[in-house]
Amino acid sequence: MPPIPSARSAVHPHVEILQAIYTDLPKIAEHAADDIVLHRADRSVEDLRVCRGLQAVLAHEQALLRVTGDTLVMDVDHIMANDHFGTVLGTLRATRPLPVAMPFCGLWRFADGLIVEHWENAYDPAALQHLFTRPVPPTTSS
Asked: Smallest Cα–Cα separation from 91: which of 19, 15, 22?
C-alpha cells in the first residue's frame, strides 16, 4: 500500500495563486479570466456594486491602492482552497487616509485554474467605505 500523502506536504495551486495576489493585488491580472466578476465589499441589497471584466477589476484594485496612498496591505491569517473555491481570512490595513485595521474574508471561485468570481467581504463595509471616501486631514507643521 502506498503511503498516504500528508495534507501539509502538498499546497494546492489555488492557495499559491491567492498568496501571490494578497502579496501584490495587481497580480490578479495574471490569474483571472477575462470575464471575471468581482462583488465589491461596499455592496448592498439595493446596489450590488459588481465589477465585470478584468479591466474593471484591475481599475477597482488600483483605485483601492491609490485611495490609501499605496499603504494598503492585506495581512493573511488563513488560506484554504480546492479545485473550485478559495477562502482567505485576514486583516486589511492602511495608514491613509486614516489608519485602519479591519478583518476581511475573501471568497474566490475558480474554473480551469483561473479566477472567475471574487467576493470582497470586510467586517464593516460601510465604515470602510466612509473611511476611504473622507478627506485626508491636513498635516500641521511645527
From this structure: 22
Using one digit for the tens of pLDDT, what is the confidence trace for 54-113?
999 999 999 989 999 999 999 999 999 999 999 999 999 999 888 999 999 999 999 999
Domain count, the chain: 1
Strand order in the sheet with 32-39: 50-52, 32-39, 114-119, 100-111, 85-94, 73-81
pTM > 0.85: no
- pLDDT tens-digit map of 50-68: 999 999 999 999 998 999 9
Q: Based on C-alpha coordinates, what's the Rg of the chain?
A: 17
Does residue 4 form part of some domain? no
User: Rounded to whole angstroms, how far apart are CA atoms 96 and 104?
Assistant: 18
- Please indicate, yes or no, if residue 2 is contained in any of the structural domains: no
Inside any domain, residue 5? no
